[in-house]
Amino acid sequence: MTAPVLLTxxxxxxxxxxxxxxxxxxxLDVAPRSRWLxxxxxxxxxxxFLHVMPEIGAHGGDFASATGWSVPAxxxxxxxxxxxxxxxxxxxxxxxxxxxxxxxxxxxxxxxxHSVFWLHIAAxxxxxxxxxxxxxxxxxxxxAGIALFFTAMVLHFVTADYGTRADHPEIYDSRGRWVLVVxxxxxxxxxxxxxxxxxxxxxxxxxVGGAIVLVVLKEELPTDRESAFQPFLLGIVLYSVLVLGEVxxxxxx
Length: 253
Hints:
The protein is mainly α and 253 residues long. Helix 2 crosses helix 3 (71-107). The two termini are 20 Å apart. It has one domain (5-21, 34-252). It is globular and about 55 Å long. The longest helix is centred in the middle third of the chain and has 37 residues, at 71-107. It has 8 helices and no strands. Helices cover 81% and strands 0% of the residues. Keywords: Membrane, Transmembrane, Transmembrane helix. The chain crosses the membrane at residues 6-25, 37-56, 76-96, 117-136, 142-164, 176-193, 199-217, 229-252.
């Protein structure tokens, strides 16, 4: 299913604006951690558990039909992709921390090595490419559905890009953000010309869901972040209300 092209084009450009200008959002650079970042993280987690995970479960049946496996085995395979997304980004975060620590000891600079940071940018570019593609290929192509997807993703990008830029602002501002812009627009353009089978769409959703969970929890859980639980919870609650409201409306139709 596809959403209106002009609508998704505007959303892709909004994603690009976050990549380009997250460093200009000075109100996020506060200690303790900005409540807006915690709120955005809560919305993204709400999206994963109320939208992505149910869709992954629904695609388990398609996977079973395509492979001939039992439904439980097929669902396990699809959820393994979500785990893969989480593990990939966890591994990269660990590499960033080790690289930063090594460089601090050797050079006195609180920055990861360039090669490790570019690995992070490459993984992030893969994620935003997929999300850009999914703008044009979603199971729920209603206005409400695409609006909920956009809201969750644009707030997720604020959290993710802020964290990425914090690792190495010099590289991010000079080149890294432009790589993310190209990946976003590339994903959106690919979505216009390439329509994958529903099975593949389900796999992409699974991978994205696992990656988002890791990125958000990485930003929120460490004690040195001094994150705020109340805005995080508020983001989850407000997004849940919107999702449940959409479900109720659809159920009455």
